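Subject: Sanity check before I submit

Could someone independently write out the structure tokens for this chain? I want to compare against mine line by line before I put it in a report. The sequence has 269 residues.
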Amino acid sequence: MNILRGVLAAAALGVALVFLASVACPRRDERARVPSPEALSGLADPAPARLQPERTPEDSAGARSPQPGAPAAYALLVRVLDAHGGQPVAQAEIELRLPEGAVAQQALYLAADAAGERRLEGLPAPAVTLIARREGFFDSDPVIVALPAAGELQVLELRAGAWLDGTVQGRDGVPVNYGEVTALQLESGTSLVAKPGRGGAFRLPALEGGTWRLGWREHVHAPADPSAHAEVVLLAHQRYRAEITLETAGAAGDAAQPAGIRVQPAGAF
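---
Independent answer below. Compare away.
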């Protein structure tokens, strides 16, 4: 009986020792297990929230609103009129000059409409310079406009002259695109030169009314030939067409001389 009790006691002690060993020393695969990043993130201190940049009006879908200290934008209506009769000058060109440093491009060229008007919006400078021009007219004097004190309307006046254009060709009809067409006003002594271009075409878009002597020379140092000129009276607001025919129309080295100069009215403008 005593022997049986001893055996049972020894067996109980062995089971207890095995249980204690399993608790104190985990299995190898349990000791090598590394916590997952998810588990670590749950244990780590929360990261501070990142500061988001404050959005400005320029950031949102192109919308813009005035900013404190931004330069003002001005508007101006420009009207171009004929100085003689006060009629609108359709399709006139308006040159807009801005002060240095206002924008990268200091001069803008804009076209007036059929009523001789052009509305300018968003001018970045409080003072601009305006010049109007059109073929057949003399350029207007530069006008400095102070905004907004000058008001919303600025009138520019153009003074009409005579408009002369034409062609230079040989007797065989071949265009001559070299040499110079000369124009001398006898009353004032004003002298102008136009160079024939493609097709022998030339133009003198603004001439004072009066008597003009027209000619052609091969180059600037060519001797003048009085017999190779034609005198014509030109009137303001009138367009004229000239045809200059040369005796020889060869290369630039040929000795060409005008054989005939004919000028005819081509309509009023």
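---
OP: Matches mine. For the report I'm noting this point. The helical segments are 2-24, 28-31, 37-43.
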